[in-house]
Design brief:
With 281 residues, the chain is α+β, with helices and mostly antiparallel strands. It has 3 helices and 17 strands. Strands 2, 3, 4, 5, 7 and 8 form a 6-stranded antiparallel beta sheet that branches. A hairpin with a 4-residue loop joins β9 and β10. The chain is flat, with a radius of gyration of 26 Å. The termini are far apart. About 10% of the residues have low confidence.
Length: 281
């Protein structure tokens, strides 16, 4: 009789510990999945993008030792204004396998030990296309006739697609770019929150279009105008990155003449749609 009681007791103990073990494993799996999504960008549209340029924190660490780990790389010029012979020169980068000392004076790439080069980010451009692609950290406008050049950014920036659109009296260059390490993973890349940039060749001015705590997902010029339809994703969970599948998106119009964003769908309609969805109407 005692043996039976002991067996029953042992079975109950094993059942309890077995159940606890399953619960612990499930909790660990959930936490690990969340960590991978938050830290490594699983399910993110840019999960296969390059690592990105180093964040300011990492740069500060390197500069304390007078070192660098990334070098600029000038890509082949693209003629965007045939009449005035104006070119775009995308600036990309190469990542070194290990940091190297920063040389004094003007950067001379021939001083570098290219055996340390880990990889190079390449630009592929269709011969006559209006879009070209790569992994860029800046852009130079080169006027062949005057031999003048203009660098668009004096800050750290990352973008991967450049779109050129032609109008009767101007040429507009647009691209989505990240300028901050909003995910706080040590890199500025396309998984961070991005703004839309529009550069006018005629005015020689760069305009930024963005919303606080949001990411530019897509954009398109309204036919026959310079106004833009822009889709923004809202960073609802405030983790510095937007997932279209789990965070809401909105549509705005960018009035190019006024340089301002305006609603396409009024707030009353948005509110009514939400009430219908949640069943509160």
């Amino acid at each position: 009789m005692k043996i039976e009681k002991i067996k029953n007791y042992n079975q109950r103990v094993l059942a309890v510990f077995g159940t606890l073990g399953v619960i612990v494993v499930l909790v660990l799996v959930i936490l690990l999945t969340k960590l991978l999504i938050d830290e490594f960008g699983w399910l993110h549209p840019y999960r296969n993008s390059d690592t990105g340029i180093l964040s300011s924190d990492k740069i500060e660490e390197l500069q304390k030792e007078n070192k660098r780990q990334q070098l600029i790389s000038l890509k082949f010029p693209k003629l965007v204004d045939t009449l005035n012979q104006v070119y775009i020169i995308p600036v990309s980068r190469i990542d070194l396998a290990k940091p190297e000392l920063i040389n004094d004076g003007v950067l001379d790439l021939y001083d570098s030990d290219f055996r340390n080069v880990l990889n190079e980010q390449y630009c592929c451009s269709p011969p006559d296309g209006k879009n070209f692609f790569g992994e860029f950290v800046n852009m130079i406008i080169w006027d062949y006739r005057t031999q003048k050049t203009k660098t668009l950014f004096d800050l750290r920036v990352n973008f991967n697609e450049i779109q050129v659109d032609y109008f009767s009296d101007d040429i507009l260059v647009t691209f989505k770019a990240a300028t901050e390490d909003t995910r706080e993973d040590g890199f500025i890349n396309l998984a961070d929150l991005k703004g839309l940039y529009v550069y006018s060749l005629r005015n020689e001015k760069l305009y930024k279009v963005s919303l606080p705590n949001s990411d530019v997902l897509d954009y398109q010029y309204i036919r026959g105008t310079r106004d833009l339809i822009i889709q923004f994703a809202i960073d609802k969970n405030e983790n510095g990155s937007c997932f279209q599948e789990i965070e809401p998106t909105i549509i705005k119009k960018y009035d190019y003449a006024k340089k301002q964003l305006v609603d396409i769908i009024d707030q009353k309609t948005i509110s009514e749609l939400q009430k219908v969805l949640e069943g509160s109407k």
